[in-house]
Amino acid sequence: MHEEGGIALQPESILTATGICHSFGGLMALQNIDFTINRNEIVGLIGPNGAGKTTLFNLFTGHYYPTLGEIYFNGQKINGLKPHQITPKGIARTFQNIRLFGHMSVLDNVLIGQHCRTKTGLFGAIAKTHSSKKEEAQALEIALEMLRFVNLVDKKDEKARNLSYGEQRRLEIARALATDPLLLLLDEPAAGMNPQETTALIELVRQIRDEMGKTILLIEHDMKVVMGISERIAVLNYGKKIADGSPKEIQRNEEVIKAYLGESA
User: Fold this and answer.
1) By the 8 A CB rule, do 215 and 12 touch?
2) Residue 103: CB partners within 8 Å, gap ≥ 6?
3) Cα 181 from Cα 102, distance rounded (Å)
4) Rg of the chain, C-alpha, whole Å
């Protein structure tokens, strides 16, 4: 780490947020948050309901703009950019409430994820130019590869709404991966899953990092998932970051135990 112009820079970090504040009217949802994610790291973000976790996700992805503070991703300032400008830079996310196109096929849902990477314009799409056909073939190949990765390729022609809940979660992850992100944000990916699906999810997240080289930030209430997969955990409470450390450090942190984990932890 070195300093430039009084600001501490961390070359190994892929995302750095400093002094982040965000308010909804008179309610301060986030207060002076400093947050760093290192490349190829799996980071868990936990805290009670209403602590500001999803708000932070929305700031990272351009759905909200910070009231104060700055967000840098891969060396570029991104606060103030809209979601369609941030996604091509390499940030993708899933949502707490699944947002698939239920009437469309599994394959088409993943193909939509590649929209930010395609270059064919209206004329090329209508005229079916050589370059547009080549791009379509590449998009199809990538979509099928993502579906194989999440073990859904055999259901590529089914409507997304006909998948089981756990399969829909995996499909949403495949669609996010189709954007070719550097950083993948997962908002409660294990919500609603049974124990077998949760175990499979933990393995899938590890594979996304280890085999695809992605950096991952996840919000999750299932402590088995968070403690089992995160290399570092940050804790929010009432819009403030109260802890940031290894799973063992978080489990022993008295303020975290009092605010979130409970004495039984």
Assistant:
1) no
2) 159, 160, 161
3) 23
4) 19
Q: How far apart are the two ends of the chain, measured CA to CA in Å?
A: 35
Asked if residue 13 lies in contact with residue 215, where contact means CB atoms within 8 angstroms, the answer is no
Distances (CA, A) of 164 to 145, 169, 171, 217: 21, 9, 10, 24
Are 22 and 59 in contact by the 8 Å Cβ rule? The answer is yes
For residue 178, give the nearest of 146, 209, 153, 223 by alpha carbon: 146
**The residue type at 162:** N
Q: Are 208 and 185 in contact (CB under 8 A)?
A: no
Residue 203 in contact with residue 191, Cβ under 8 Å?
Answer: no
Q: Measuring CA to CA, which residue among 38, 62, 86 is closest to residue 232?
A: 38
Q: Which parts of 74-200 are beta strand (E)?
A: 76-77, 91-93, 183-187
CA 56 to chain centre: 11
DSSP state of 190: T
Model confidence over 150-202: pLDDT tens digits?
999 999 999 999 999 999 999 999 999 999 999 999 999 998 888 999 999 99
User: Tokens in use for 223?
Assistant: 């402590």
Cα–Cα distance, 211 to 219 (Å, whole number) = 21
Question: Which residues are paired to 240 by β-bridges?
Answer: 237
What is the Cα–Cα distance from 229 to 210, expressed in whole angstroms? 12
Say what the pTM is: 0.86
Are the C-beta atoms of 199 and 205 separated by less than 8 Å? no
One-letter identity of residue 135: E
